Amino acid sequence: MTARRRWPARLAAAAAVLGGTALIAVHASFYGHWLIDDAAITFAYSRNVADGLGPVLQPGVAPVEGYSNPTWMILLALGKLVGLFDHGTLFGVSDQILFPKALALACCAGVLALFYAGAKALSSRPALVTFVAGAALAANPSFVIWCFSGLENSFYALTVAALAVLLLRSVLSDKLLTHRVAIGAGVIAVLAALTRPDGIIYAGAYPIAVAVFLKRAALARSVRAVVVSVVAFVLPFGAYVGYRWFEFGRLLPNTAIAKGQEPPAFADLARPGEIVSYAGWLLVAVVVGCLAVLLVKPGRLRIGLIALMVPLGLAFAAFIVLEYDWMGHLRFATPVWTVGALLGATAVVETFAVVRVRARVVLACLLVAASVSAVGGYYEQGTKYRADVKTAMCAVAERDDTAINGFADILRLPDTASAGVIDLGGTALGSRLRLLDLAGLGDAPIADYLHVADFAGLRDYVFTTAKPELIVFVGSWSSTLQFDQDPRFERDYATIFARNDAKNQATYHVRRDLVDDAKLAELRAFAQRALPPVLADNDVARRRGCANIVPGFTA
Question: How far is CA 415 from the centre of its chain?
Fold first, then answer.
């Protein structure tokens, strides 16, 4: 191709990637400054790593791996080191909000650039495939919500897209068995596994692809390539597991211990139906029909589509294994949406190219009907979530940091005093007291109790060993952990403030030996002044931003 002919192709590629990225950004703006509070747990670790304090939730506490996304944490720490994160404001917005969202948008742009690289090897219309795939991702609330939640989903999507495109291009170029591809697949799988624990499943992508395209004459070479890929995965991932053992004393993240992942049941095999229902049954049926048309015809296109189905199948398998997530909107389906968008866009675009005119008309009508139906469902899902977003980092910080820091000042507690909390993220960034994570993500002993559902043992630990000066409960956690049924709670702790309505369920308690009647009255008066305005904002403005959250933070 001459230089003159390359320019239109390059412009089309840039337009497809930038256009798709812009659509994703527009949808992301729909959710304002909202970040999920759990993301701020990782923010707290990244702050302390960047400050040279090591992987700790707060300065001075013992290391506990209260995060399950080391790669994302390191990216945020690097952002802090270069002055882009946890320093103040960027363009008038807290960089604790803006930088993770900007990083997520960069990852989404990277995903679309990878889509173009894959489509270029597979389709004669790579720019169109890329834009259609980008538009599909941009329309999907599940993909956009979780990529821009502050969590690791955007980088996870990038790693899975990189692996899918590597397999696709290597199969089509007959380079699948080269050591470069084998090592690349292993290294990308390491990145996926260190971005989410279930990412370890992608270590199987390369061996499965080799098995799918196995040729008897290349059996020995295939075995060697698989061994190389496995070693490329095991060495760095094993090194991190070794580090985890020596640093934290565990083989799994503390978060995995606390959540207690159970083996999948037979009924879980039906869980992909949740993804199909969310995406739209008619749209999925049209895409599957297009795939069927293309897969019955031998050739390069069929080979490429089969290659993409390997990581897609693993993404579905991971979704089946993982337990239901309280955050909703199929948070664990991000890899399915990512690979599915490239596969589906390729299938639709290429089917239009190969069928006759009458079939194109029928397909166009079906596609319009399916898209209208799906987009209508997406709009409803997105607007419902926008109106009632899940636990927001700023809302938690303004509520609990205001309370904890204010109570600590009144009681003149030292920074080594502790507060038992449920919502950990914003509180870890802004509390001047040390935190006891009653949900177990950032506390190893409590994680162990939760892992075996030993709530009595957990309460014994809190009342006899930890003895936090303050305790904060939200939602139904007091009942879940059965504190409300334990007479020691009423005996040892006095209630400062309680609010239990549809949108705000929070109670604050102080250890009785720290207060007399006058001091308790002072705490209650402060709570009545400080908390109702914050809770009122939480009723109607959960997508709001906030100032940078630092120790001692108040609303």
Answer: 31
3-state SS assignment for residue 541: coil
Half-sphere exposure of residue 358, counting CA atoms within 13 Å on the CB side? Answer: 0
φ and ψ of 290, to 5 deg:
-65, -40
Helix (H, G, I), strand (E, B) or coil at 499: strand
Label residue 361 exposed, middle or buried (CB < 10 Å: 0-12, 13-18, 19+): exposed
Residue type, 155: F
For residue 471, give the H/E element and its range.
strand 470-474
Assess contact for 405 and 427: CB atoms under 8 A.
no
What string of pLDDT tens digits covers the 555 residues of the chain? 555 667 888 899 999 999 999 999 999 999 999 999 999 999 999 999 999 999 999 999 999 999 999 999 999 999 999 999 999 998 889 999 999 999 999 999 999 999 999 999 999 999 999 999 999 999 999 999 999 999 999 999 999 999 999 999 999 999 999 999 999 999 999 999 999 999 999 999 999 999 999 998 999 999 999 999 999 999 999 999 999 999 999 999 999 999 887 788 888 889 999 999 999 999 999 999 999 999 999 999 999 999 999 999 999 999 999 988 888 889 999 999 999 999 999 999 999 999 888 999 999 999 999 999 999 999 999 999 999 899 999 999 999 999 999 999 999 999 999 999 999 999 999 999 999 999 999 999 999 999 999 999 999 999 999 999 999 999 899 999 999 999 999 999 999 999 987 677 899 999 999 999 999 999 999 999 999 999 988 877 788 899 999 999 998
User: Minimal CA–CA distance to 423: which of 407, 441, 409?
Assistant: 441
Task: Measure the CA–CA gap between 185 and 179, rounded to whole angstroms.
Answer: 10
DSSP 463-486: IIII--SEEEEETTHHHHTTGGG-
Q: What is the DSSP letter of 399?
A: I
Measured torsion, CA atoms of residues 160, 161, 162, 167, in degrees rounded to the nearest 10? 90
Nearest to 112 by CA among 341, 350, 349: 341
- In DSSP terms, which residues pair with 498 in a beta bridge? 507
Helices (H), 296-438: 300-321, 334-354, 357-387, 393-396, 402-411, 425-430
Name residues whose C-beta falls within 8 Å of residue 76's C-beta, 6 or more positions apart in sequence. Answer: 42, 43, 46, 85, 99, 100, 103
The helix (H) or strand (E) run that includes residue 526 is helix 517-540
- pTM for this entry: 0.96
Helices 357-387, 281-295: axis angle to 10 degrees equals 140
Residue 252 sits at the vertex; the CA angle it makes with 238 and 273, to the nearest 5 degrees, is 105
Residue 493, strand partner residues: 511
Q: Which residues contact 77 (CB under 8 A, 6 or more apart)?
A: 46, 47, 49, 50
Q: Which residue is it, tokens 């590629």?
A: 13
> What's the full length of the chain, in residues?
555
Torsion of CA 219, 223, 225, 229, to 10 degrees: 150
